């Protein structure tokens, strides 16, 4: 048995949000000691291109934790990829999560990196020293024809250089176990972390499952119907639901848990209080091998 990885995701605040909110989030998360914190990359026109590198740098320098910087591929060319990667390296970040990114209506792709695997290959060739992560989809990516085909493309990401996978959110662990069996059968042998997004608000979860084409299992549907209009109670139920998911996944020996913090430090802390003891820290797979030199 190995010790599961525990990691978190944060996102840069919107341009019009007070800049300090991300530091409040990171302060609120301090003491949890995740193996790393990943920082998303905005694709929208108004997204601040430097935010991911700046926040990653803060995580590393001020909080002493390894950071993984996301980078979306389809709207950038090689010069822009280099610019972003240089920024990450100057910020001391040696791990990157290349993604294709979601299509932005009305915006023409650059036509250089059509898929995440194209950017992964480019980084592998030009910066072999970087650790490369990639995304995976237990319930199939919404644009893929089916899960088997999606897994073939996932294998391509691993063969191109990704050495660590993080999954999209899911609310039924059976979907993750089924995916894991298929991925292993396809020869994907890198660590696969399970992505858990706590339910805190009915509108938000309905939007997320719609955009991810994710299933709402009966148990969660009942919760949403019962407490959807009482956000304080739904949040409590959501913390229990996410904690239950994590306990079951760790009991099944998964490689790791990636908690989508949604920048909600208090909720993340509550889940950690429930499940933190399930993660022993002695020989953590990821920080030792891939990321320790960063912090
Ligand atoms: P890809 O791996 O390129 O796959 C996209 C689709 O194309 C899939 O349907 C796949 O089956 C298919 N495909 C792949 N390769 C080929 C090929 N060679 N030929 C034909 N079809 C192919 N979005 C952001 O904007 N910023 C973020 O920071 C961000 N972080 C994320 C983190 C995680 C862990 C996850 C799971 C998602 C994240 N996303 C983020 C969302 C992500 O950008 C979208 O899900 C996007 O639609 C797919 O990105 P990908 O890298 O998985 O795409």
TrEMBL record:
Q: One of this protein's Pfam families, by short name?
A: MTHFR
Q: Keywords assigned by UniProt?
A: Amino-acid biosynthesis, FAD, Flavoprotein, Methionine biosynthesis, NAD, Oxidoreductase
Cofactor(s) named in the record: FAD
The answer to whether the entry has keyword NAD is yes
Q: What are its E.C. numbers? A: 1.5.1.54
**Enzyme class label:** oxidoreductase
Pathway in which the depicted protein is active = One-carbon metabolism; tetrahydrofolate interconversion; Amino-acid biosynthesis; L-methionine biosynthesis via de novo pathway
Cellular component aspect of the GO annotation: cytosol
UniProt catalytic activity: (6S)-5-methyl-5,6,7,8-tetrahydrofolate + NAD(+) = (6R)-5,10-methylene-5,6,7,8-tetrahydrofolate + NADH + H(+)
Respond yes or no to whether keyword Glycoprotein is given for this record: no
MF terms from GO for this chain are: FAD binding; methylenetetrahydrofolate reductase (NADH) activity
Q: Name one GO biological process term.
A: tetrahydrofolate interconversion
Per the record, the domain of life is: Bacteria
Q: Which family does it belong to?
A: Belongs to the methylenetetrahydrofolate reductase family.
What protein name is recorded for this chain? Answer: Methylenetetrahydrofolate reductase
């Amino acid at each position: 048995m190995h010790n599961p990885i525990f990691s978190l995701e944060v996102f840069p605040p919107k341009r019009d949000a007070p800049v300090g909110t991300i530091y409040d989030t990171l302060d609120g998360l301090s003491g949890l000691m995740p193996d790393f914190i990943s920082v998303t990359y905005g694709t929208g026109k108004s997204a601040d291109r430097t935010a991911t590198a700046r926040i990653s740098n803060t995580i590393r320098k001020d909080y002493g934790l390894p950071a993984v910087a996301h980078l979306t591929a389809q709207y950038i060319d090689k010069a822009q990829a280099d610019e972003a990667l240089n920024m990450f390296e100057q910020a001391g970040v040696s791990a990157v999560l290349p993604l294709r990114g979601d299509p932005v209506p009305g915006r023409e792709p650059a036509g250089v990196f059509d898929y995440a695997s194209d950017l992964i290959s480019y980084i592998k060739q030009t910066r072999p020293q970087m650790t490369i992560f990639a995304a995976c989809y237990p319930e199939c990516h919404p644009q893929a024809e089916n899960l088997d085909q999606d897994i073939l493309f996932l294998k391509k990401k691993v063969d191109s250089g990704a050495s660590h996978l993080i999954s999209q959110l899911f609310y039924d662990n059976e979907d993750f176990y089924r995916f894991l069996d298929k991925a292993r059968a396809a020869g994907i042998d890198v660590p696969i972390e399970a992505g858990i997004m706590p339910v805190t608000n009915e509108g938000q979860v309905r939007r997320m499952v719609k955009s991810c084409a994710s299933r709402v299992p009966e148990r969660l549907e009942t919760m949403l119907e019962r407490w959807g209009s009482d956000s304080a109670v739904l949040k409590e139920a959501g913390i229990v639901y996410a904690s239950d998911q994590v306990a079951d996944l760790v009991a099944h020996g998964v490689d790791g848990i990636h908690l989508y913090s949604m920048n909600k430090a208090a909720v993340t802390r509550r889940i950690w209080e429930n499940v933190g003891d399930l993660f022993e820290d002695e020989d953590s797979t990821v920080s030792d091998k891939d990321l320790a030199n960063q912090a």
